[in-house]
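Hello forum,

I keep getting stuck at the same step: I have a sequence, I want structure tokens, and every attempt I make locally crashes halfway through. Rather than fight my setup again tonight, could one of you with a working pipeline run this one for me? It's a single chain of 306 residues.
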Amino acid sequence: MSTLYFESDAPDDVRRPCVYDGHVFVYAPRASTRAFTEFARGLIEEAFAPYDPREAQFELPVEKFVEIVAPLQPHFIHHPESKRLIATILEDLGCDADQTYFDVPRMRVQAHDAYLTAGVGYQLHPHRDTWYAAPQSQVNWWLPVFPIESESTFAFFPKYFHRAVQNDSDRFDMYEWNAKARKNAATHVRKDTRWQPMAQEELDLEAEFRVVCPPGGLIIFSGAQLHATVPNMSGLTRFSVDFRTVHTDDVVEQRGAPTHDSFGKGTTLRAHLRARDYEPLPEEMARIYDPEPPADAVLVYKPEPS
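Reply #2:
Ran it on my machine without issues. Output:
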């Protein structure tokens, strides 16, 4: 059974084990989270000017929309201010800045209806992040940038948290994904042909729950949660941001959520940066999960200079 904790004052050392057991934490907007989403909103509005970003899809051909989003996402992801604001959120939520490491944030764009469901606006199918070579101790932090509705959020499928799902994650290679799929996202406009791990059994998609929170609200959950994008029928494009964290004690002790059905090759750990000073996670910790990466492997994705 999964529990929703609203505005919990549990310290991080208590919250993390709860997250690993399938529980979800939701926080109201606070100064640190508002600063992060307002920064993202400013970049989005600047990129889409003079259009309202949430309504631009009704004014622009999809190719032009993608032309705007394609540079916007990496600009936000790798902006120094994004890192600083994430570190501020982590401190605000009681994380140890010396032992907490975060991956660079993502900016998600989900258009209304079927305008754009591929590439930079990919509609995520039911999946666990651990199918994509994430460690069992990964914690996900998700925030909406503009107001959202039940028809424009994402869904959890908690009945599968402690139950294995047949899937083909054994075919997934993190380093091949870094080398090819991530940098080619913007080339997929009408149809997304990038292979991604998926469930190989029929799922009970009615057994879901959704969380709606205001801009700057925060949802924290395990990377092992089975979750998916809700088909956006809200009438507006949804913009959200998210990032992932790991704690070094949990990485070293291999603590975390169940990983009974995750078989991807490689690890995402090398992309994580220390909250204190943005130093990369020590290589010896990554090698606990990936002892001998190929010599030519693209261990961490780095966008090409624009």
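The mean pLDDT is 94. If your local run keeps crashing, start a new thread with the error log.
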